[in-house]
Amino acid sequence: MATPSLTGRKAEVLWALPYLVDLAKDVLSEEEYIEAETTAVYLVRTKQLNDAAMKRLTTLVAPPPKQPLTEAQQALKALPRFTREAIRYLADYIELLVRAWSFEITGDATTKTRSLGHNVRRLIPKKFGLPTDLIDHLKRYNSFLFTPTKHDFTIFKGQRHRFTSREVVLIAYITMKLAERIIELSPAARLQAIAF
Prior knowledge:
Elements: H1 10-13, H2 18-27, H3 30-42, H4 47-60, H5 69-77, H6 83-106, H7 116-122, H8 125-128, H9 132-151, H10 165-185, H11 187-195
Helix pairs in contact: 2-9, 2-10, 3-4, 3-10, 4-5, 5-6, 6-7, 6-9, 6-10, 6-11, 7-9, 9-10, 10-11
């Protein structure tokens, strides 16, 4: 039964799609993955552990005081509620960085208004000498996270919400790791992360 502090039963809150778990294992180091899983579990434990998990999440997604990370931070503070909003703002941050990176590489001004998926498809590793694994991770991120967050309202059998707290925690870790890699490679993305 749902409680006032949960979006569903504890078993539901700690459930995550295997596809997302695989992406997290591919993107994060083993230590980061274990930390993400521990953070997710702490969200449904005692108040003290929940507070520790919230502090860890808001520290992880500590932006310069800019959007969309500021909005993501606020949504994360409300976990396990507002899971869709947290994911949307995290995905918006990656989209913002990829737009800047794509424009920097291609010089095509239309990349500034195009979607994450469109811009990731334009970043061809062989043509531009980009890391294949990063582009693959971004494609997977887009197909699983970005598109469903904005367009898919399917509720899986036995769930009350589209995304669980565990999924949000994994996505937060994945997002910040991908952002770190993009910022390392792209001066334009680095500037965008500071200026937005």
